[in-house]
Structure formats: structure tokens, C-alpha cells
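Quick one: co-fold with heme C.
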Amino acid sequence: MTNQIKVFLSGLAVASIVGCTAKGDNPGLEYAPQMYHSVPYEPLTQIKDESAGNIISNRTDGKGEFYNSNTNNPYAQNVRKPVEGTVRRNPNDILPYRLGKDDIEAAAQIENPFPDTPEIQAEGKRLYDQFCAHCHGANGKADGKVAPVYAGVPSYTAPAQRNLSQGHVYHVITWGIRRMGAHGSQMSSDKRWKIARYVQKLQQQ
Ligand code: HEC
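Sure, here it is.
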């Protein structure tokens, strides 16, 4: 055995003995540790020990490579509690919908937050074809393939449907109504409003 191999084998033996001491929070010897430790801040995990990883550290602030705590925040975390009274909005600035199934009259007063543009109509149509057309028909005339076996599908141009407001249609999509099932859990609020815009077009034809 050449000396080189001897050195290599004894190094391997030491590494495996040291590596076997892993327990609890200690992962044992880490091979290529820079691959395990995040350089940017992690939202939920922090390494508060300033000397952690100092053997391989390239940092210029004298701290160990693995130190990544945000010491300015409580618990050294990066996620922070929203300010009290904060109301969640989605990326389109739409507030959460809080009306319950029976609040349909209040719902009918709500305006559609999306304007009636060709882009919104196109997206509304795409979603309508996916979620509604099989019952209500491609043109909303109650002639979808499922309509003959699912009694009571109305045409959007029927006198009782023609003037249903955008808020009403949105509410019906969200909660369902009488024989129609709810679709609120199947698509986001934005998508439901966009479908309502397309239904409006079908009501007017
Ligand atoms: C499984 C078949 C089915 C699907 C899918 C369906 N509907 Fe309906 N829809 C019905 C039926 C049946 C009614 C009549 C409910 C009643 O009055 O009993 C109805 C009623 C309606 C009404 C009239 C509500 C009212 O106040 O009279 C609107 C508006 C409507 N649907 C829109 C939609 C939209 C938009 C979608 C797609 C997101 C959709 N529906 C998906 C079966 C369906």
C-alpha cells in the first residue's frame, strides 16, 4: 500500500467515525456544507451562532459562513406578523369575500372589480368553457351536453336571468344556488369575477 492510499484510508476512517456521531439536531460531518446552508436569509430557520462555518467562511464581516440570522426581528426570523388591523388582499387588490350563502341580496350590489375589456372577456370565456359550458351551453342558452340530464339549467337570456347583476352572478358561482353547485372552492376569486364578465356578455346577446 502506498503512503497516499494509507493516508486516504485513515482519513476516510476518521471521517466515518466523526460522521457517525449524528444525533438530534447534529447532522454529523457534512460533506460540502455550503450546499446545505443557505447564504440568503431563510424565512423560518436561523443560525445564530456567529462562529458557525468560520473555517470555510468567505465573509468579510468576520462571521462564519453559516451565520444567517436577522437579529433585528423577534426570534431572529425574517417573517414578521402583519401590522394589527391589516387586511389581506390578493395581487389584484381584491379583498377577501366574506358574504355567506344567504347574503345574495347584499352580494348583488357589489361591482365587478375587473373592467369589461377584450382581455378579461377572453379569459372569462376560457374559464366559462371549462367550468360552465357543459351545463349552460357555449352561448349560455342552457344547451350544454349535461343540460338534458340535469334539469332546470336556465338560459342567461331568459327574463329572470337577463338582468342579474355582476355581484349576483359572482355570488352564484361562489356559493351555488338551489340546484346549481358551488364553484368557490374550485377557482380563485379573480377567475370568478372574470367569468361573471363573460356571463354578462352572454346575458346581453
Ligand atoms: C352541473 C350543471 C351546472 C354547472 C356546471 C353550472 N351551472 Fe349554473 N345553474 C345550473 C342550474 C341547474 C341552475 C338553476 C338553479 C336553480 O334555480 O335551481 C343554474 C343557475 C345559474 C345562474 C342563475 C342564478 C339565478 O339566480 O337564477 C347563473 C347566473 C349560473 N348558473 C351561472 C353559472 C356559471 C357562471 C357557471 C360556471 C362557473 C355555472 N353556472 C355552472 C347548473 C349548472
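If it helps, Residues 131-132, 134-136, 146, 150, 152-154, 161, 164, 169, 172-173, 177-180, 183, 195, 199 surround heme C (CB under 6 Å).
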